[in-house]
Write a structure and sequence with these properties.
mainly beta; Neuraminidase; 15 strands; 5% helix; 43% strand; disordered N terminus
């Protein structure tokens, strides 16, 4: 299987442009991004226009990147609140309902880095990491780059350490800080 770019992921689904589609020679993979939802990895085949469920992930995610050398899809857990800004105790919610409650969180479970090995179809949790909404892989350094809000991180895939590289700027609207994806083109992060 030959994938040429990181998967473009949104909470609602996967959107690709005609330019990207022209360079894709296999399946695209995505993952649902709902907070507290069951994580589902799905595949899209642009040639056959077919979408299929691939497997159940360890958790839902808004950030995924493909590493061709290992045939792995890396992903970071979506934020999972343990406490909320508002007290939902009077609602008598089930644990499942509470896990996906759309109220701003106050405290969160640790974010986790995991991967799906496409050779064995097994999911493996690797380590704690920072919360991230975007991921991109750099094959020249064997590192993942991720971001959350305006923070840019680097994840070393050998040591599994996450390092803050700095902050990003240039957003024309404040909503842009929460949306979009990252990709590396000729060692330039876009």
């Amino acid at each position: 299987m030959n994938l040429l770019f990181s998967t473009v992921i949104l909470a609602v689904g996967v959107i690709t442009s005609p330019i990207v589609n022209a360079n894709c020679y296999g399946k695209l993979y995505g993952i649902n991004g709902g907070r507290g939802d069951v994580g589902i990895v799905f595949s899209l085949d642009e040639t056959t226009k077919q979408a299929d469920i691939h497997s159940q992930a360890l958790y839902s995610s808004a950030a995924m990147a493909y590493v061709e050398s290992t045939n792995r899809l890396y992903y970071v857990s979506a934020p999972r609140p343990t406490e909320y800004q508002l007290d939902p105790s009077a609602l008598n919610l089930t644990p499942e309902q509470l896990a996906s409650l759309p109220i701003k969180g106050k405290k969160f479970k640790y974010s986790r880095l995991a991967y799906l090995d496409l050779n064995t179809n097994e999911h493996k949790q690797i380590s704690r990491t920072k919360n991230m909404y975007r991921l991109a892989y750099d094959s020249t350094t064997n590192k993942l780059f991720g971001s959350s809000n305006n923070k840019l991180y680097e994840i070393n895939l050998e040591t599994h350490t996450t390092t803050l590289l700095g902050t990003m700027s240039g957003y024309t609207q404040s909503s842009e800080i929460w949306r979009g994806d990252m990709v590396l083109i000729k060692v330039k992060l876009i």
